[in-house]
Specification:
Elements: E1 17-19, H1 36-47, H2 60-65, E2 74-78, H3 84-91, E3 95-100, H4 103-115, E4 120-124, E5 137-143, H5 151-157, E6 158-169, H6 192-196, E7 201-206, E8 215-221
Parallel strand pairs: 2-3, 2-5, 3-4, 5-6
Antiparallel strand pairs: 1-4, 6-8, 7-8
The chain binds S-adenosylmethionine.
S-adenosylmethionine (SAM) binds next to helix 1, helix 3 and strand 3.
């Protein structure tokens, strides 16, 4: 798949461009039938209006736990969307790069950054073929973007001691009216996050019994010496 970079500015070890939400039941998950260009078209269309589909405030699990990420360090936001989490971290002093397949999302993320007077690096690319050097990142955040084929690489990207914060819906979300058709491949199983990254140390784990919004969240650390 083609990778489109908006600009190249190597202030981050991974290639990146610089200019410089909210949790809830409004997440429409990736459908397994959409691939490559179809995914991009789907999300571009979804984001193509003034409203911020997932809001401008960060996911609660992130705003409550961002201090697990060492101060001022470099963070990758996978499937960044319209930037609610990336901009939040930038406001807290982190050097954030957000990667998303949707150029519309990335443009909105840059607008949000400007609104809050912060800078974020952004890249329009598919994470399926986007190259990130091993041991280069202090932290990775991944919110509501499930692609198990990336699990091994996510750990490789992190420096020893690096932190991963991951949150998504569990397949219980399919019990919620209107969500029955969500593709199970893009939902996490109950407790799956506890076993998905076997080499990582669990720092925090939550799988609350929500009514109407079944989420699962984890904070992991890559061992300092492998
Ligand atoms: C449910 S949204 C979550 C957005 C954001 N993480 C948040 O929590 O607000 C999933 C995001 O993943 C992005 N995405 C889907 N497939 C992708 C891929 N292969 N590479 C990069 N981003 C992708 C979509 O464009 C979309 O913005």
């Amino acid at each position: 798949m083609r990778i489109i970079l908006i600009t190249l500015l190597f202030s981050f070890p991974i290639l990146a461009q610089t200019r410089g939400g909210q949790s809830g039941g409004r997440f429409e998950l990736l459908s397994g039938t959409r691939k490559g260009k179809e995914v991009k078209t789907y999300w571009d269309k979804k984001y193509n209006n003034e409203e911020y589909v997932f809001g401008k405030t960060p996911a609660k699990f992130l705003s409550q736990n961002y201090s697990y990420i060492p101060e001022g360090s470099r963070v990758l936001d996978m499937g960044m969307g319209e930037g609610r989490n990336a901009v939040f971290l930038a406001r807290k002093g982190y050097k954030v790069t957000g990667v998303d397949i949707s150029s519309v999302a990335v443009n909105k993320a840059q607008l949000l950054a400007r609104e809050f007077g912060v800078r974020i690096n952004t890249v329009v690319a598919s994470l399926n073929n986007y190259k990130i050097p091993k041991n280069s990142l202090d932290a990775v955040i991944c919110f509501y973007y499930v692609d198990r084929s990336l699990n091994k690489r996510m750990v490789e990207w992190l420096k020893p001691g690096g932190v991963l914060i991951y949150e998504s819906h569990t397949d219980n979300q399919r019990k919620v009216k209107g969500n029955e058709s969500y593709d199970k491949r893009y939902l996490l199983r109950e407790s799956e996050l506890m076993t998905m990254f076997p080499k990582m140390r669990v720092l925090k784990y939550e799988e609350p019994l929500h009514k109407g919004n079944f989420t699962t969240s984890i904070i992991l650390q890559k061992p300092k010496a492998e």
